[in-house]
Amino acid sequence: MNAASSIFQSSTFGFAGILPNGYTSAVMSGQAVAGVFAAVASLLSQVASSSVHGEQSPITDSAYGYFSLACVVLILCLASVFLLSKMPFVDHYLQQTSVQVLRQKQQKVVDASLQTRVIVRPSYLAIMRKVVWYAVSVYLVFTVTISLFPAVISQVVSSAPNPSHSSWTGVYYSTLVCFLMFNVADLTGRYITHWVQVGSGRRSLLLMTALRCLFIPAFLFCNVQVKGERGIPTYSHLPEYDIIPIFLVALFGISNGYLGSVAMVTAPQKVREDEKETASTIMAFFLSGGLFSGGVLSFLWTFLVNPS
């Protein structure tokens, strides 16, 4: 499933790279909307399952409803992709890209015959050199994000004296703070790039993505639920105020959405028209690599919090 998701994601970014610049940003925003939609569905499912105590049927029904809704969304997405490929607007840019590639091939043949030399079509490596800074940036963004979200952030509990006595601090705290707030902040960060793209230079972008590594110790020293006697000592925690993890999650989500979108949108602008699809595919590959690396690191951070 993950392999199929990566292939679909890479193809989507490659497809968006052929279209005008705003469409790559639209794909990034669409992913964030899906995250918010999933978080809201999870919250509603949780409310439905907890509305009737001591019965298994509401829990089962809410689970069926949650995953049935996901299947419906996937079917709608598949139909949308099919209809998108048939639109005259999209067909225009697909034909335009094909014509440009054909003209370049013909020109290279003419140059080779006139100059008695062979001109090699730019390779993946040549395109990679043009977007390497942005590729590394998007890799770092999602490595840091997935290493903490949701493995570590979901273990942050309320600092209330008896969190289990309140629905906010006991039942819905993790769902609201970890999942819903992060996805809303992520969506906000991605939408900001429609109007402002401060720090889109390759070095400044890489610097800002590297600074996000500071979120790792910040979240590790929040009020994380420790299940054993070992783990990060209590005295090293940040002050136990709920506003601190809430602020960190909001900033974490906004920076993820903003920096990730800036990298994905700017990279295709640094190459020729016929290279944009390949550049977008390379960026999607590094994005997927960041997801994988972040998933591996999440085991390490979880072990540091709960080694037992």
UniProtKB/TrEMBL annotation:
Keyword Membrane carried by entry: yes
Topology in the lipid bilayer: Multi-pass membrane protein
Protein location: Membrane
Keywords: Membrane, Transmembrane, Transmembrane helix, Transport
UniProt-listed InterPro entries: Eqnu_transpt, MFS_trans_sf
Family note: Belongs to the SLC29A/ENT transporter (TC 2.A.57) family.
Protein name per Swiss-Prot or TrEMBL: Equilibrative nucleoside transporter 1
Species the sequence originates in: Geodia barretti (Barrett's horny sponge)
